[in-house]
């Protein structure tokens, strides 16, 4: 593959770190961004020609500074990957204003800042590739305790699709992609707001390794597509869901897992209103 200048947010761990190391071994020039300086620099040291810059992607000025830094270091940007994100462990009726605001800021607004920072550069060059890392949960509600996270990823999916439609006719060489992983073996669950309930994924969903997802994203850079599920199982489940939403949801319901939690929630809501 031809060497490209690739910006990756959320690059200090998980999918972002795995992707940085893989692209580095393939000879790409990388700009890696994350909030945690020490792990970010450690990833950069293992990723070939990589530059690290501490970035809070929820701050627009930081994201714009990331673009300026990348342009200063390498003179252009070929691929920008909005990968930073965070989960939450609350069901819909438990959510506070702050919970929802944080999910939207981390998972949606940060990506919007990235899109608005880099796409004008792509338009000026007449080419480029924006990749937003979303989630299968943005399409199919299989984990209700990820409610606001799933909502934020659904919003990201729609923003990405609308941007792609805006550019399709006038700028065919500016590609806009969405990547939707399912469960991935990273520290994502441990860093989620309010923790993560111990609920295993459905039997038909296997847990992928971060390296596997990174390999798929690397392939997407080589052959751009509008959207990618990181597992064929996820794509078939999404299709089945939209063909029969009620039937799918009734078949996937797990009262034994849900009922105790909802009973406790009802009592907490009653106490809150008193």
Compact overview of the structure:
The protein contains nine helices and nine strands.
Structure characterization notes:
This protein is α/β, with parallel strands linked by helices and 274 residues long. The protein has one domain: NAD(P)-binding Rossmann-like Domain (Rossmann fold), CATH 3.40.50.720. It is built from nine helices and nine strands. The protein has helices spanning 14-25, 37-45, 60-74, 97-125, 147-168, 210-222, 232-243, 245-252, 255-273; strands spanning 5-9, 29-34, 50-54, 79-82, 128-133, 174-180, 184-185, 208-209, 227-229. It has a seven-stranded parallel beta sheet with strand order 3-2-1-4-5-6-9, sandwiched between helices. It has a two-stranded parallel ribbon with strand order 7-8. The longest helix is centred in the middle third of the chain and has 29 residues, at 97-125. The protein is globular, with a radius of gyration of 19 Å.
Which fold name corresponds to the CATH topology? Rossmann fold
CATH class designation: Alpha Beta
- Residue-averaged pLDDT: 87
Strand fraction: 5-15%
Instruction: Supply the helix-strand structural class.
Output: alpha/beta
What is the chain-wise order of helices and strands? EHEHEHEHEHEEEHEHHH
Helix content range:
40-55%
Could you tell me the radius of gyration in angstroms? 19 Å
Tally the structural domains: 1
> What is the topology, as strand order, of the major beta sheet?
3-2-1-4-5-6-9
Question: Any idea what the CATH superfamily is called?
Answer: NAD(P)-binding Rossmann-like Domain
Distance between the termini: 63 Å
Count every helix, treating DSSP H or I runs of 4 or more residues as helices: 9
């Amino acid at each position: 593959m031809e060497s490209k200048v690739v910006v990756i947010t959320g690059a200090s761990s998980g999918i972002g770190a795995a992707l940085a190391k893989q692209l580095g071994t393939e000879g790409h020039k990388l700009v890696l961004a994350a909030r945690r300086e020490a792990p970010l620099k450690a990833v950069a040291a293992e990723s070939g020609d990589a530059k690290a810059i501490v970035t809070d992607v929820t701050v627009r000025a930081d994201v714009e500074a990331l673009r300026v830094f990348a342009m200063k270091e390498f003179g252009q940007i070929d691929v920008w990957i909005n990968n930073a994100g965070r989960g939450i462990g609350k069901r819909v009726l438990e959510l506070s204003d702050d919970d929802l605001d944080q999910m939207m800021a981390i998972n949606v607004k940060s990506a919007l800042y990235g899109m608005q920072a880099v796409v004008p550069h792509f338009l000026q060059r007449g080419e480029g590739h924006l990749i937003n890392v979303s989630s299968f949960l943005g399409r199919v509600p299989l984990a209700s305790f990820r409610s606001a996270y799933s909502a934020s990823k659904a919003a990201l999916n729609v923003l990405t699709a609308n941007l792609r439609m805006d550019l399709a006719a006038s700028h065919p060489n500016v590609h806009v992609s969405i990547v939707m992983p399912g469960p991935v073996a990273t520290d994502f669950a441990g860093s989620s707001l309010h923790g993560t309930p111990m609920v295993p994924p459905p039997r038909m969903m296997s847990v992928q390794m971060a390296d596997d997802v990174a390999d798929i994203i690397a392939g997407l850079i080589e052959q751009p597509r509008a959207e990618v599920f990181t597992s064929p199982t996820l794509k078939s489940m999404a299709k089945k869901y939209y063909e029969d939403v009620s039937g799918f949801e009734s078949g996937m319901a797990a009262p034994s897992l849900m009922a105790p939690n909802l009973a406790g929630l009802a009592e907490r809501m009653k106490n809150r209103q008193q």
